[in-house]
C-alpha cells in the first residue's frame, strides 16, 4: 500500500523507475538505488558480477535464502524441498539475468499477490521483527551471487 | 475492550489480502490426519501420550488449596470431569463482566486472582499449562462451539490479522494455511492451521505448549514481531481459529511432530 511502484510497474511497461528505498530508522545501511526497466533490473546492484558457488549455497540454505522452503531444484543433498512454487531447474533459460534479478529483488512488482518474499525491499512491510527491521532479507552482494547462480540453471 | 477489537480490525484491514478464500467446511481436517501412524498412535493411547503427564499434574493442582482464600479449584467446581465438561470447546468466550473475550488460560487466572486470591500463573508456566490441559481434556472429542453472536468483533479482528501480510517475509497466515494448505514447505505438509489439539505435546519442543506458543512460532518464522503472551491480538486470533474450526472435535492433549 505504501509502495508507490507496485501498481504501475506491475503493468510491465518499458518505463524507467528509480527505486530509492530509504533506510528505516535504525537501519544499518540503506538499500542501493536500482533501475527497473520493464520487467527486469538489467544492471548489477553492486556493479560487480556475483559468485555462482556462493549463490548456490545461499539458495540451498533454509535459513539464508529460504528458497527451498517453497521451491525445488537441483540440490540432491537437500531432501526437504518445497512444492509451493515452480522448480528452479531451467529458470536460466526461461528468464534473462535482469528478469531474474527483479524476481528476487521484489517479486511483488510483477505479481502483487505473490507469496515470494521481497528479498531486497524494506518499505511497505508491517510488524517486522526488531532484529531484522530496516534490513533486506539478502544484501546486494548476496542478491548478485543468487542471480549469478540462477543464470546457470539452464535446460 | 470491544474498542480494542475494532482497532485491530481497522489496522489490519489496511493490509488485508485482496482475495482470501476460506476453506469450505466439508474440506476441513485436523493435521492429525497428516501425521505418521506412530505419532497418531502416540496421541491416541493415553499411556504413550506425554501430554497426559500434564493432565495428571493438573488433577493434583485441581485438588490443591491455594491463595489467601485457601481453597482448591475442586472446592468450588467439584469434580472436573463433570463441571469442566465441554468448557474448553467454547473458549475463547465472551466475559460480560470485563466486556471482552477471554481465553481458557486467562479464565483460569481469573479464578486464581478473584476466587483463590493468589497471584496469576505465568503464561506457559508448567502449572498453568497443567490446569489448562486438565480442563481441555474434559472436552476431548466434543465439537467446538464458538459463541459467534457475542464474539463477532473478536472473530473479525482475528480474521483481519490472519489475512494480513506481516514480517520481513511479507506473508500472511492465510497464505500458508488457506491458500497453500496440503502443499509442502521444505518437506513439511502445510496443515489448515486448526487449534483443535491445544495445549499439545510437540516432539520438537519436547514439552507441552499452548496455542499462543504455536502462533508465536509461526510469527517468528514469518520474521514478524510476536505479540506478548495474552495480548488481545492472540485472543482475537484464537477466537477466529476456533470459529474457523467450529464443529470440529477437540483433541487436547494432542501430539504434533
Please give a structural write-up.
- The complex is a heterodimer of chains A (155) and B (257).
- Chain A has 155 residues and is mainly alpha-helical.
- Chain A has one domain: Cytochrome c-like domain (Cytochrome Bc1 Complex, Chain D, domain 2, Orthogonal Bundle), CATH 1.10.760.10.
- Chain A has 6 helices and 2 strands.
- Chain A has helices at residues 6-9, 52-60, 67-70, 91-94, 97-106, 140-151; strands spanning 16-19, 34-37.
- In chain A, helix 2 (52-60) crosses helix 6 (140-151) and helix 5 packs across helix 6.
- Chain A is globular.
- Mean pLDDT of chain A is 85; it is low at 1-28.
- With 257 residues, chain B is mainly α.
- Chain B has a single domain, classed as Cytochrome Bc1 Complex, Chain D, domain 2 (Orthogonal Bundle).
- Chain B contains 11 helices and 7 strands.
- Chain B has helices spanning 2-13, 37-44, 52-62, 73-77, 80-83, 104-115, 126-137, 148-162, 173-179, 211-221, 232-244; strands at residues 93-95, 100-102, 184-185, 188-189, 200-202, 207-209, 255-256.
- Chain B has a 3-stranded mixed beta sheet.
- In chain B, a hairpin with a 4-residue loop joins strand 5 (200-202) and strand 6.
- The mean pLDDT of chain B is 94.
- The A-B interface holds A 1, 62, 66, 68-70, 79-84, 108, 112-113, 115, 117-118, 124-130, 132-133, 135, 137 and B 14-15, 17-19, 164-171, 175, 179-180, 183-188, 190, 220, 223-226.
**CATH hierarchy: architecture of chain A:** Orthogonal Bundle
The CATH topology of chain B is: Cytochrome Bc1 Complex, Chain D, domain 2
* Mean of all residue-level pLDDT scores of chain A: 85
Total domain modules of chain B: 1
Determine the oligomeric state from the structure.
heterodimer
Order of helices and strands of chain B: HHHHHEEHHHHEEEEHHE
CATH superfamily of chain A: Cytochrome c-like domain
Individual helix count of chain A = 6
Instruction: Kindly provide the name of the CATH class of chain A.
Output: Mainly Alpha
- The whole-number mean of residue pLDDT values of chain B reads 94
Q: List the domain count of chain A as a whole number.
A: 1
Give the N-to-C terminal Cα separation of chain B: 36 Å
What series of H and E elements makes up the topology of chain A? HEEHHHHH
How many strands appear in the DSSP assignment of chain A?
Answer: 2
Task: Give a short account of the largest sheet of chain A.
Answer: 2 strands, antiparallel
Amino acid at each position: 500500500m505504501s509502495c508507490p511502484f507496485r501498481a504501475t510497474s506491475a503493468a510491465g511497461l518499458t518505463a524507467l523507475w528509480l527505486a530509492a528505498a530509504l533506510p528505516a530508522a535504525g537501519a544499518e545501511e540503506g538499500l542501493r538505488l536500482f533501475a527497473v526497466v520493464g520487467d527486469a533490473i538489467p544492471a548489477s546492484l553492486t556493479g560487480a558480477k556475483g559468485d555462482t558457488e556462493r549463490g548456490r549455497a545461499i539458495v540451498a540454505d533454509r535459513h539464508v535464502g529460504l528458497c527451498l522452503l517453497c521451491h525445488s531444484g537441483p540440490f540432491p543433498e537437500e531432501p526437504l524441498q518445497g512444492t509451493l512454487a515452480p522448480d528452479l531447474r531451467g529458470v536460466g533459460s526461461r528468464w534473462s539475468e535482469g528478469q531474474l534479478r527483479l524476481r528476487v529483488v521484489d517479486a511483488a512488482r510483477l505479481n502483487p499477490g505473490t507469496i515470494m518474499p521481497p528479498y531486497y525491499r524494506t518499505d511497505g512491510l508491517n510488524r517486522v521483527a526488531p532484529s531484522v527491521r530496516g534490513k533486506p532479507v539478502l544484501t546486494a552482494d548476496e542478491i548478485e551471487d543468487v542471480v549469478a547462480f540462477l543464470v546457470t540453471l539452464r535446460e | 475492550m470491544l474498542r480494542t477489537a475494532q482497532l485491530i480490525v481497522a489496522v489490519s484491514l489496511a493490509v488485508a489480502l485482496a482475495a482470501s478464500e476460506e476453506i469450505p467446511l466439508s474440506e476441513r481436517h485436523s493435521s492429525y490426519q497428516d501425521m505418521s501412524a506412530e505419532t497418531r498412535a502416540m496421541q491416541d493411547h493415553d499411556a504413550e501420550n506425554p501430554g497426559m503427564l500434564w493432565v495428571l499434574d493438573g488433577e493434583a493442582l485441581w485438588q490443591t488449596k491455594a491463595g489467601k482464600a485457601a481453597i482448591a479449584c475442586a472446592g468450588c467446581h467439584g469434580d472436573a470431569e463433570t463441571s469442566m465438561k465441554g468448557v474448553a470447546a467454547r473458549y475463547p468466550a465472551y466475559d460480560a463482566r470485563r466486556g471482552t473475550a477471554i481465553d481458557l488460560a486467562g479464565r483460569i487466572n481469573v479464578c486464581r486472582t478473584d476466587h483463590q486470591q493468589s497471584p496469576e500463573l505465568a503464561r506457559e508456566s508448567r502449572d498453568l499449562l497443567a490446569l489448562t490441559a486438565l480442563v481441555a481434556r474434559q472436552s476431548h472429542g466434543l465439537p467446538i462451539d464458538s459463541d459467534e453472536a457475542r464474539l463477532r468483533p473478536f472473530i473479525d479482528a482475528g480474521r483481519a490479522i490472519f489475512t494480513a501480510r506481516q514480517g520481513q517475509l511479507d506473508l500472511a497466515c492465510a497464505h500458508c494455511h488457506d491458500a497453500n494448505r496440503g502443499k509442502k514447505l521444505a518437506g513439511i505438509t502445510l496443515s489448515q492451521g486448526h487449534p483443535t489439539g491445544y495445549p499439545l505435546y510437540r516432539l520438537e519442543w519436547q514439552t507441552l505448549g499452548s496455542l499462543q506458543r504455536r502462533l508465536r512460532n509461526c510469527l517468528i518464522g514469518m520474521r514478524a514481531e510476536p505479540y506478548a503472551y495474552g495480548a488481545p491480538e492472540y485472543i482475537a486470533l484464537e477466537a477466529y481459529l476456533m470459529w474457523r474450526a467450529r464443529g470440529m472435535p477437540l483433541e487436547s492433549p494432542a501430539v504434533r511432530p
